[in-house]
Structures are given as structure tokens and as C-alpha cells.
UniProtKB/TrEMBL annotation:
GO terms, molecular function: metal ion binding; sulfuric ester hydrolase activity
Organism (species): Stella humosa
Keyword terms, alphabetized: Hydrolase, Metal-binding
Protein name: Arylsulfatase A-like enzyme
Matches recorded under Gene3D superfamilies: Alkaline Phosphatase, subunit A (3.40.720.10)
Amino acid sequence: MAAGNILLVTFDQWRADCIQAVGHPCVRTPTVDALAADGVLFRNHFTQAAPCGPARASLLTGLYMHNHRSLRNGTPLDARHANLALEARKAGYAPKLFGYTDTSADPRDHDPNDPVLATYEGVLPGFDAELLLTESLEPWAAWLKARGHDVPARPTDLYLPDRSGAQPGDGPTRAPMHMVAEDEITFFLADRVRDWLAVNGGKPWFLHLSFIRPHPPYIAPAPYDRLVDPADVPPALRAADRTAQAAQHPWLAAHIARQWAGKLPVADAVPMAAMDEAALAQLRATYYGLVSLADAALGRVIADLKASGAYDDTLIVLTADHGEHLGDHWLLGKDGYHDQAFHIPLLVRDPRRSADAGRGRVVEAFTEAVDVMPTVLGWLGRPVPPACDGADLAPFLAGGTPDRWRDAVHWGYDFRDVRGGHFEKTLGLSPEECGLLVRRDAQGKYVHFAGLPPLFFDLAADPGELNDLSRDPARQGQMFDYARRLLSWRMAHEDKTLSHYHLGAGGAASNRAV
């Protein structure tokens, strides 16, 4: 029996500190801030994996990466796993997708010639794709063409910058798009959701609105291209130079070398070497403008919900797949182990009166992406699949605190290269050795590599993760304790689909409720 509406909103590559309500000095996010005032903001929320595919697999299955095993963009997601969309269908919903889930299909369920095996941008089973936006950009490009835009043969060239008004000293990400904000892909997607709601909003619905922004390419339409002055952005958090940063760890050295030999995430393929201090400040300012663009697009959807009265019956969950380094640690993107890539927003607005005591609350307890699925299912009054690794956030939403809760967060990152073997060759590792696990609590952070030395950071003294203490004799006992706790967490979160059952006299018994 449907309980109300569900709006699950994900942004791509939005890091947790880029919200005005948490004190960011440049970003303006009035929509998110208003939702935070009417809901609960989880301040220490972390994703379980990166990049997009593995992160979204954890979000939508409620499983840690070592259980769902969709390790990279393109690694298949085992069809046996329960997921949020399939479970919602059992509650009478037909979940609709606007955007993408980056789900790589299980090849065992498809003929080798099936085109679904030629992309990692598949749709999670259980979702009806009302508007699928992949890297081909076809729906957006067709809409632009109908509006009179010249659409290039390669739709990704829509992101090429308009450098006609370039000024001396402009950085590679300074130039705006060739189109106004109204025509940019973010407003396009939001407005298609609004069109759907105008016709279908009268009955309980489940919408997953998956925005690409503030993901690269780093180019913004006017007026968002000039929303933030590069002179006002906070400086990057990093070592004095790339060589000093790379000395922190062999994997980091290999990754920095590879990234800086490549191109900036802009459509006209500018070399990374062009990113000096001024260019980085501009890139960060452009990113903040894209955050505000995404916030404004969501604001239109929220305004329509309020105008129709649906807002009062809608559970809103707002989060991201992963974060973004923005030049911190001499990196761009979301690869590795640093907080900037894994610390993400989570905001939940529960419309029920039982949640009134929690409105405007900021929760400091550690939460994880795997908690979203059990929270939504709990709101629907549905049982949580036995294998799920997350926990229902309902007690926080009601203004309380669960009797038992985690004191740390964990995530994984897999850097194998199935097709090219780059890190395997560079670092002398087998594919199974190309992975890391992190235990991070309020005081410290331990990073365990399968085939490389570990890392250990004292976050109280070194919140920027610049000083690795793993080789400090005085820290060996403390580091061992973190390693022990990481192993205990890993053992306690093995696949438990059937482990709670016992077959014997009287049939199948389960201690699942214990």
C-alpha cells in the first residue's frame, strides 16, 4: 500500500562542504539550505565507493562494495542483489528514473551481442527510465535542436566554451557555455520532471532524479560562470608541490603522474599542465557556480511540489554519488582515499508529523550511503532485505538517536584496470591487489591496501591528511588497533543473505530479528 511520494535526488560529484548551510564561504545553495531547515542534515555522511557506478551500486542496493562487487564503472552488478527500486515495486510503486544510474548489466543474463553489454550506463533493474541521460546526451541534444540550437555532430561538443570574450589571464575554465542557463542540461532535466509531475502527480509516486552536475566538464552557462570570484575561493589543501604530495604513497604517486600527463576536465582538452594557481582558483569558482546551478534547478521542482500540495506528502532524500578533490592533494576527481572524494551531502526531509522534532537538525553521527535504502524502505513500512548493510535513519529524523550506532565509517576503492592494466603494470600488482579499504573515525584514519603499504593519519592533529604516520614507531600500536577494527568490520559485514538461517528438524529457522 503506497504511503506517499518519494523523491530521491542525486547529484554527481558534489562534495559535502560545498553547501552554504554548513558554512562554505562562496557557495550559494538556497534550495538545499531551505530543505535542511525543514529536514535533517547529516554532516558526517560518506559514500562507500567511487567512481559513479560502484558508488551508486552501494546507494541503491544498501551493500558495501565488497558485497555487491561492482568495483569500477563497467564492472557488472550481480542480478541476484535486491535493490531499492525492486523493493519499492513490492510496495505498489513503479519507480521512475530521470537521469541515470550507471548500472553495468549482469552479462550472464544477456546474449553476447546485446548492446547493453557495450555500456556501463545501464538502468538499475526496477526503474522505468522516463528520461535516460547518458554520455550520448541524445534527449537533451534533440530538445536543443527543436529549440533552434545548432547541435554539433558530436553532442559532447555542446560543452565547448565560448571564448569569444576571452580576456588576458582567463583560466581554461573561465569561458561560459554557448547557451544560457535555461537551455543547459541541468534545467532541462529538472523541467522534464516538472512536466511529468504536472500530469502524473496526483497519485503516490517514486521519482529518482539524477543530476549530472556539478560533474565535469567544468564549464558553466551565464550567469553561473561569474557567480563566484576566483579571488574569493579558499585555497587548495595540499603539499607544497606535486613531488612532496606524491611521496605520501606509491599509489598516489602513480595516480598523480598519470593525471598530470593528461587533460583538464574541459571539453577542449586543455593539458593539465595549464592549471597553475590562478587557473585552479578559476576551476574551483566554476565548480561552485555549477553547484548553485544544480541547486537552482532542484528549486524549481521543489517549488512545484509546494504549489501542488505534494510537498506535504513527499519524502525527499538528497545526496551525491561521491565527492571531488578540486585540486586538494594535487588531484581532480574522485579517485583514492581522501575525504574530499568520499565525504558527501545527505539531507532527508520526512513530511510526517513524527519528524517535526527533527526539523532543522544537524546530525554529527557518522552515516553512510548504504543507510539510504533501509531508510526509504522503513518509511514505506517494508522489510529490509537480509543482506542489506545499512541502517534506518528514522530515529534521527524523529529527533532522537538510535540505541546502537556506528562510531566510524568505511569505504573501498578499486583501481584495477581490466582493459589496460595501467596500475597493475606500474605498481607490479595483480588485479586482486589493486584495492584499498578505509576505516575513518573522529580521531584517525587507516587506509589498508591489498598489495601496497598502509597509511595512517591523526585527523585531530592533521585534518588535511598531509602527514602519514604509518611508519612512526610510536604509532604502531594505534595503527594496529585501527587495522584490527577494520578487519572486525569486514568480517561482520560479509554477505548475510542466507547466513541467518538454519535448516533442520521443523524446517528453516532464522534469528534475523535478534
